Structure formats: C-alpha cells, structure tokens
Amino acid sequence: MASIAYRAWESGILPILPDKPGQEEAERHRLARAVEFGWQHAISAEIDGVVVGWCSRAPSRSYVPFLFVMPELQGHGIGAQLLSRMETILELEGAERILLETPADHVRAVRFYERQGYHILALKADARAGHDPFASVHLEKRLRPYSGIIEG
Questions:
Q1: In this structure, is the dihedral angle defined by the CA atoms of residues 48, 78, 74 and 15, taken in order, positive or negative?
Q2: Could you tell me which residue ranges the N-acetyltransferase domain spans (predicted)?
C-alpha cells in the first residue's frame, strides 16, 4: 500500500512542489509509517487480487488523510468508489460530515473532490518551522448519519 501511495504522490504532488533535497525519501518514509500505523482504519480496492488503491481515515475522526490510486488506473472511478465507501462507513458511525485536504496547486485533486460533492472550506498555508510555505485546500462534505440500530 505504501508503494501505491508513493507512486501516486510522485506523479501527482511531487511535480508541483519546489525541488528540495531529500523530500522524496522523506515522503516515502512518511507514507510507509502511515500505512504501518494506520492500516486498521483503511479500506482498499483490488483488481484480480492485487491492491490498486486505498483510502484511510483518522482514528476517532471523520477526517480522510489518505486516498491513493495507482497512477495508471486513475480516472476510472476507483478513487470515487473508495471515497464513497469511506463516507458510508462514517455515516454508519454517525458522522455528520467528512473533512479532507489536498495541495492547493493540485487542481486535478481539488476538482475530483468537488465532483464527489465536497465544498472548499478554507485555503490554509502550512508555515511550520523548517518547512517551505505550502498552501492546502480544506474540503468538507455533509453526510447523512445513520441513527438506527445496527444489528450484527
């Protein structure tokens, strides 16, 4: 799953970032740790038994930090299906909204989320010490939380 995330990051986000030594290895490590510690909150899409995309949510929150699909399979509805299923999971848990963010310059991703019914909440700059200023678009979608009884 980490390799899918890295390949998607490399093809979609890396080209819009300023060139910075070591950023590719740092991102590879960050994504590997995200998979290692967040896999229990993730769902995946498979084709012929091979994982081709995945989506995860933050523990105890209706926030989606990761949605990745193999670059060569993007644009075929896999990401939309993963996101829709994650929304359903959150609705069943009673969530009223779902939040996510993406780089502001990643226009393709922003448009994708808008097509899925997300609305832009804010444009925020990440100016943490030691980091280049980085603008991200924060998006939200209202959900229809389930309020009935779930029987197992």
A1: negative
A2: 1-144
- Token output for 140: 């939200």
Q: Which CATH number, 1.10.10.10, 3.40.630.30, 3.30.1360.130, 3.40.50.1220, labels domain 2-142? A: 3.40.630.30
Pairing, β 119-126 against β 66-69? unpaired
Q: What is the CA radius of gyration of the chain?
A: 16
pLDDT, tens digit (0-9, with 9 covering 90-100), for 82-95: 999 999 999 999 99
Encode pLDDT of 30-59 as tens digits: 888 888 877 789 999 999 999 999 999 998
Supply the pTM of this predicted model.
0.83
Instruction: Using the Cα atoms of residue 5, residue 11, residue 17 and residue 23 in order, give the sign of their dihedral.
Output: positive
